[in-house]
Amino acid sequence: MINIEYDKAIFLDEANLRWQDDDILNCSKKIFSLDDDKETSLIKIEKDSTFHNSNKVNSVEIFVLDGIYSNEFGSFKKGTYLKLPREDESKITSTTGCEIFKKTNYKQNTVETSIVDTSNTYWSQGQGNLEVMPLSDQTALVKWPRDEVFVPHTHWGGEEIFVLKGTFMDEHGEYKIGTWLRNPHLSKHFPYVKEETIIFVKTGHL
């Protein structure tokens, strides 16, 4: 088990993690958190390879970081977000090779399916100068303009972040592209950026 202490803040830079071969699924992974069958990780699928079926998937949340990801619902390019109540792993493949950020078996109270092509979806005005793109219940992309400073705030139900572009900062450190952060319930911080930054954010689920 890796990083299952949900009452503690944690951050991991994917550049400091090594790819691990997953022979059961036929892919490579950089694992951020693993708790029994719940997993948060980066997954790399080689060109024209197909997943083996582990029969352990009851929900998935995916953001395609590179290449084309295919499953029984279709083929999805870089920048696509998927939230699915179930996925048939034996139908997962990639004609180009791809890399994805994936959360598995973190089933919410409501069954929800959401597929969003973020490259063709409008941003909405958020607090201050932030722009927000809702992806599903509790999940969104947030765009920070250069030199934006946010108000200090408390995370009710916690917060999880994956940095997609730029460098996210707070009083605890600097988190460049590819960094995953998890802040626990009632944690506090004062975030800001120096360059345009985009983060994948989940809130209230911890």
Automatic annotation (TrEMBL):
Q: Signal peptide location in the record?
A: none
Q: Which InterPro entries match?
A: ChrR-like_cupin_dom, RmlC-like_jellyroll, RmlC_Cupin_sf
SUPFAM superfamilies this protein is in?
A: RmlC-like cupins
Question: Where does the ChrR-like cupin domain start and stop, copy by copy?
Answer: 32-104, 114-206
User: Pfam families recorded for this chain?
Assistant: Cupin_7
This chain's protein is named Cupin
Species name for this entry? Arcobacter arenosus
